[in-house]
Amino acid sequence: MNLQDYIAQAHEVEHEGVAALQSAADLDALEAARIATLGDRHGRVKALQEALRSIAKEDKPAAGKRFNEARQKLEALHAERKAALDRAHAPTTTEDLSLPARRTWRGAKHPVTLVIEEIEEIFRELGFTIAQGPEAETEWYNFGSLNFPPNHPALDAHDTLYLEKGGVLRTHTSPVQVRTLQKYEPPIRVLIPGNVYRRDFFDASHAPMFAQVEGLCVDEGISFVDLKSTLNRFAERIFGASRTRFRPSFFPFTEPSAEMDVQCGICGGSGCPACKGTGWIEILGSGMVHPKVLEAAGIDSERYTGWAFGMGPGRIAISRSGIPDIRILYDSDVRFLEQISE
Ligand code: PHE
Questions:
Q1: Which residues, 6 or more positions from 5, have their beta carbon under 8 angstroms from its beta carbon?
Q2: Ligand 1 pocket by C-beta < 6 Å: which residues?
Q3: Of 69, 231, 259, 296, which shows the fewest CB atoms inside 10 Å?
Q4: Chain segment 223-257, per-residue pLDDT in tens
Q5: Higher pLDDT, residue 201 or 212
Q6: What pLDDT, on a 0 to 100 scale, did the predictor assign at position 97?
Q7: Domain boundaries, the chain
Q8: CA 4/CA 250 separation, integer angstroms
C-alpha cells in the first residue's frame, strides 16, 4: 500500500470509529463499538496496524505516526464515553452513605433464663437429662404423693392457688419427681426447670409466679455423700470457688433434709446488704428422697435410694447482679434488662 492510501484509510478508520463510539447509547452498545473498533482480534484498528507491514520502509515513520494518532484518539474517546455512561448508570441517591448506621436493640435472653441455661449445662455435664411436667397439677401430685399431711399449712388456700374445676397451680416443681419416677426405671438423673405459683403478694422479695429448677437422682446405693458432693461441685461451677454450708431443714418429701447456703460472693462472707449481713446466701432446699415418695411412685424403697433438690434461679440472678427488688425481673423494662442481659 502506498503512503497516501494508508493515510486515507487511517482517516476513515478514525472517522468511523469516532462515530460508532459516540453514538453508543448505553454500556452494551459502547462495548460492541469498542470490539468493532479497538478489539484485539477483528478490530479495525488492529487491521490498520497490520497494514503497516505493507508500507515501504522510507514511508513507515509517517504511516506509523498517523496510525498512533488514530489509535490514541479512539482509545481516549472510548475511555471518556465509558466514564460518562458509568456515571449515568450509578444510582442517584440523596442519602449520606457516610453516616454511621443507627444502632438497633437486638434483644437478649432474660437474666433468669441465662441462669437456668447455665444450671442445665452444669448438670448435663454430670449426666442429668431434662424433664418437665404440667403447671396445672392435681393435688395428689403436688402434695399427696409428696407426703404432705392433709392438714399441712401449704395446702391452705391462703398459700396455694386452687383451680375452679379442681387441681392447683403447682407450688413447686417437686411433683415432677413423682411423674418421672412413675415413667422411668432407675437409674434416674433428671433436672426439672419450670414455673411455679404461690398465693403471694408481689413485693421486693416475693412474686406469685417464679421459676424453679428441681434435681432428682435415684439409683441403688445413692447416699447423702452423693448429694453433698454433687451440690458442692455445682456451687463451685456456678459461683466460682465459693464455700458452702448445709443446714438441717425439713420438707415432707425428703428425710433427712438440708438447705445449702453459699458464701456471699459480693462481700466474701463478711456481711453486706446482698446477704442481709449474714455472709451467706440461701440457694436451695435438698434431702434424701423420702421412702414414702418412692413408694407412691411405685419404686421399691428397699432397693433404691435417691436425693433431690429445688432452687430458685431468680435468686441466683439477683445475688449475682445485686438487684435490689425482684419485681425488676418481671417488668420487661428494656432499659434495665439491657444492663444485665448478655
Ligand atoms: N420443693 C421445695 C420448695 O419448693 C424444694 C425442694 C425440692 C426441697 C427438692 C427438697 C427437695 O421449697
A1: none
A2: 172, 174, 214, 251, 254, 285-287, 308-310
A3: 69
A4: 999 999 999 999 999 988 779 999 999 999 999 99
A5: 212
A6: 81
A7: 3-88, 111-341
A8: 119
Alpha carbon 60 to its chain centroid, in Å, reads: 76
d(CA 116, CA 109): 11
Q: In the CATH scheme, what architecture does the domain 111-341 have?
A: 2-Layer Sandwich (3.30)
Q: How confident is the model at residue 178 (pLDDT cuts 50, 70, 90)?
A: very high
* Centroid of ligand 1 to alpha carbon of 310 (angstroms): 4
Measured from the Cα of 212, ligand 1's closest atom is 4
Q: What does each C-alpha distance from 272 to 75, 229, 324 come to in angstroms?
A: 83, 28, 13
| Strongest mean pLDDT among 67-71, 73-77, 217-221 | 217-221
**What pLDDT score was predicted for residue 206?**
87
- Alpha carbons 288 and 265: distance in angstroms, whole number: 28
Ligand 1 atom nearest to 171, measured from its CA: 4
